[in-house]
Amino acid sequence: MRLTPELTIFSVFLILAAVAIGTLVAIASAAHGPAVEQAAVQKSGYRLRRVWFRGLAISAVVAFLLSLPAFPYRTRSQLASSLHHPVTALQFAFVIPPVLPVDTPIVLDVTATDVNHGVGIYDPDGRIVAQVQAMPGYTNPLQLVFKKPGQYLVLCMEYCGIAHHLMRATFEVR
Amino acid sequence: MSDTIETLARPAHREVTSDRTAKRVMWLYIGPGLILVGAMVIAGLGLRMAQGGMHTFQPGLFYSLMTLHGSAMMVGMALCGMGLLWYLFAQEGPLNPTTAVVACALILIGAVLVAISVLVGGFGAAWTFLYPLPFVGTYWPSWATGVFLAGIACVVLGWTIWCLQMLGGVLTRYGGLRGAFAWDLVWSPSKFAKSGQTPPPPQAFAVLVSAVDGLLAGSAGMLVGVALFVRWLDPTLPLDPLWVKNLTYIFGHTLANLTIYMPLAAVYVALPRYTHHRHWHTSAVLAVAWWATLVFVAIAYFHHLYMDFAQPRAVQYIGEAASYLAAFPPAVVTVFGGALLVYRSGFRWTLGSMFLYVGMIGWVVGGIGALLDVTVAFNIYFHNTLWVVAHFHTYLLEGALLFVLGWVFHCLEERSGIVSSRAVRTLIGLGVFGGGAWLLLGWYLAGAQGVPRRYALQPAPGTDISWWASLGGIILVVGLIMCGIEAIRLARRPAHREVPAA
Amino acid sequence: MTRRGALQLVAAVSGVLAVALVVRSLAEGAEAIDVRSHHLTHAVLILGGAAAALALTAANRRPDSLPEKPQWLLPAILGPLGGMVLMVPTFYPYMNAHPTVHALSHLGHISAGFVTAWCGERYRVRIGWTTTLFLEAMAVGAAFGFGVTR
Ligand code: HEM
Ligand SMILES: [Cu+2]
After folding, report:
1. A95 and A62 in a common domain
2. Which pLDDT value is given to residue B3?
3. Which of B389, B403, B438 for mutating ligand 1's site (highest number of atoms within 8 Å of CB)?
4. Whole-number Å distance between alpha carbons of B119 and C96
5. Are B381 and B460 in contact (CB under 8 A)?
6. Chain A nearest CA to C134, separation (Å)
7. Phi-psi category of A138—alpha, beta or left, where left has phi over 0 and alpha has psi -120 to 50?
């Protein structure tokens, strides 16, 4: 198992969860025993809360700003320079070009003909690299660059009926 | 340490619903609510084991059962929260039981219609019934769609009635929006203190926010319900899929969120009773936290449409910001306040207080999972994978449900005057929290590797993980069954005292 | 003028305005319009009916302390449902072809608004405002997808 970005996020989750659980369990184990006046606990508690609030607020702002470049939404002019390929999802198949170029910015114009579907693209290592919803009546432009040549897998990412889990396609990147 | 529990001092000068009536209404909601939840826990385990290859469900049956599991869980949890809030608020101001019974009856009729649609008709468009799925390329007859939509309509009607009743109660009791929101406490605290007024108790904010956001969800739900029902009658009617999706998630997201915020009131009311003379008061900070919850719960739903690039761009940014901000009230005020309340308080651990406290832990952990998922940069990997299933089960199963169970055991302990032994508590704790954590971990792990949600049969490594996770699910269910037995045991004990001691 | 008188005037004016809209279209024959504008027109008519009811109930304001009257809650919630049924786009082509029926159907929108607000307020003080917002949100929301596609 390689440490992919998703598994890194998973590890971050485990660490944060462990810290949260640890802290709350520690507080719980200090709950028993002789009681302290509420006012006494509150005094230092509220001071701590201010620090906690500021810390959280700063983290939230930083996280928000850091996440901005990764937003996948593009303006029309940003999309204009790349080559567009149509992708259509329908119960229960994808119509997608069999071959797509490596290391080249492309745009997949994704739509659906019947119900909502999702296009989840998995690289040759089975890692999800991009996804977008496929909605009838709308076209969602997904801009991406394939970094690795090889066989890619597409899975449906929106529940679409009885064969949802069988709805898949492959294409070649070279 | 005494085994008696302080009963809530009830103000005598105000007209309130009698405790007996209020309790009856509460059980009228929580009883069927818990029965639904219990049945659906078994169904959920069946789904998980099928995904792990322990037995086989035909895909149609899998998706129909998944639909039932999701819808009935939401209805069941909502019923529990509604009953709980109704009871708590009835001690503040008068509420008419007839209204509550009508609302409850409508919701139960809705639940029956949904069950008929799924179990007889085989309806399987998932509990979000995202248009055009209920009509196009279905594997169930058209009538099942109609019955399902009628069922949802009944639920929405009942829900709306409940919201209107609660909102009316809160506004009347505390002097309009201004009083109910504790506006003056926040903006002119010294004047407020001098006027001798007291702000609404913390649980009243849960009532207010549930009712207001609930009505917002209700109007979206009713609109989309009418639109889909008309579309069912008249297949030529055009509907805008993106519009429907927005409404569906205003409704679904808000309702799902409220199933956590409603039983939270139990923490406010019951947790202090296990401490040594500590209280949970309304402060300006608490009031502002609930204002924030009111706003951010309502607009955070945009994160459900991150992968719809046709959605106006601005709301994607608002969605991320609002989702982050929605975490502040719990993190800074509610859970922080709960921990502070418990810290060195001479706390009395019982089954009830344990559930209430651990429920806060589950809420926080699920919240961490949610915060990672609402970051658009990560959502690209996690949207509609099992990560989503992981985080919402964390705060529904190990959060909201524990709040409800905590409240139920609190009531049973209070009534019977006895508490479960340490051994029973440990066993149930191991089953419910240990088995639960194991079950949840499987979803996180599979989600992190991109296994999609709502797959009857999962691509690798989904199936193997599901197999292992199912073992945790079995332990969890055993824990919950022990819980049920313990509850029945306590309920069958004679009432500790009929007349509250003076 | 007293507060009460002023409110009664507001009620009368909103009622008269809403009905005047109907009368005008009766006289001229309601024009054929697209579904979105149609929904929005209905939202305005509903608002007229509701405003009249709200002003009237405010003029005869009951004390806050009065308990619930559950019997009013059912019409207060069936009002919005009825209002939505009158906004089913399937009927719109027929309405566009029959100006008189169309104009008369607008009385239905006004009544739906009136019933929603009036009964809500009778059920409990301030709830009429709530049910009005509830119905208006749906009526305006309908304009963006109910029988309308991009
Ligand atoms: C033993 C406990 C439970 C088990 C084993 C379980 C299992 C499952 C499974 C296997 C799914 C389908 C996941 C997928 O997309 O692959 C699911 C979905 C879901 N569960 Fe649970 N669940 C449990 C408890 C709960 C509780 C307590 C709630 C709510 C309070 C809940 C609410 C839901 C909802 C809303 C869905 C989504 C259904 C959909 O995707 O349409 N579950 N559950
Ligand atoms: Cu699909």
Report:
1. no
2. 36
3. B389
4. 43
5. no
6. 29
7. beta
pLDDT (0 to 100) of residue B117: 97
Residues 108-127 of A with CB under 8 A from B: 114-116, 118, 120, 122, 126-127
Angstroms from B237 CA to nearest CA on chain C? 6
List, for residues C13-58, the tens digit of each pLDDT value.
888 887 887 777 777 766 667 888 889 989 999 999 999 999 888 8
pTM: 0.94
Long-range contacts from C90-94, C-beta under 8 angstroms, 24+ separation: C90/B230, C90/B233, C90/B234, C90/B236, C90/B237, C90/C147, C92/C35, C92/C38, C92/C147
Tell me the one-letter amino acid at A138: Y
Q: What average pLDDT does the segment A85-113 reach?
A: 96
Residue C100 has pLDDT above 60, yes or no: yes
Range scoring the smallest mean pLDDT among B125-129, B251-255, C57-61: C57-61
CA distance C133 to C150: 26
In the predicted structure, residue B500 carries a pLDDT above the cut 60: no
Give the pLDDT of residue C1. 64
Q: Please give the Cα distance from B353 to B346 (Å, whole number).
A: 13
Return the pLDDT at B11.
43
- Measuring CA to CA, which residue among B87, B79, B82 is closest to residue B24? B87
Does the distance separating the beta carbons of B223 and C134 come in below 8 Å? no
Instruction: Average the pLDDT over A53-75 and give the result.
Output: 94
Ligand 1 near B207 CB (within 6 A): no
Surface of B (470-499) touching A: CB under 8 A? none
- Three-state DSSP at B82 gives helix
Surrounding residues of ion ligand 2, Cβ less than 5 A: A 117, 156, 160, 167
Q: Which chains touch C (3 or more CB pairs under 8 A)?
A: A, B
- Indicate the range of B228-242, B440-454, C33-47, C109-123 predicted with least confidence: C33-47
Q: What is the pLDDT of residue A37?
A: 87
A86 and A39 assigned to the same domain: no
Residues A105 and A66 in one domain: no
Which chains contact B through at least 3 pairs of Cβ atoms less than 8 Å apart? Answer: A, C
* Whether residue B224 has its Cβ less than 6 Å from ligand 1: no
Whether the CB of B77 sits within 6 Å of ligand 1: yes
| Each residue's pLDDT tens digit, B279-323 | 999 999 999 999 999 999 999 999 999 999 999 999 999 999 999
For residue C14, what are the domain limits? 3-142
Domains of chain B, residue spans: 2-356
pLDDT of residue B5 exceeding 50: no
- Pick A131's closest partner by Cβ from B60, B133, B380: B380
Q: How far is CA A44 from the centre of its chain?
A: 39
The reported pLDDT for the residue numbered C96 is 82
Q: What is the DSSP string of A117-131?
A: EEEEEE-TTS-EEEE
User: B23 alpha carbon to ligand 1 midpoint, in Å?
Assistant: 30
**What does the angle CA B343 – CA B189 – CA B212 come to, to the nearest 5 degrees?**
80
Which residue in the block uniquely carries the two structure tokens 């922080």? Answer: B336
Does the B2-356 domain belong in CATH 1.10.287.1490? no
On chain B, the residues whose CB falls within 8 A of the CB of A114 are 132, 136-137
- What pLDDT is attached to residue C29? 65
Considering its fold, how many domains does chain A have in total?
2
How far does A79 lie from chain B, in Å, by closest CA? Answer: 13
**Which residue, A14, A39, A70, sits at the end of a domain?**
A70
Instruction: Say whether both A66 and A100 belong to one domain.
Output: no
- Is the pLDDT at B2 greater than 80? The verdict is no
Q: How many residues does chain C have?
A: 150
What whole-number distance in Å separates Cα of residue B73 and Cα of residue B401? 10
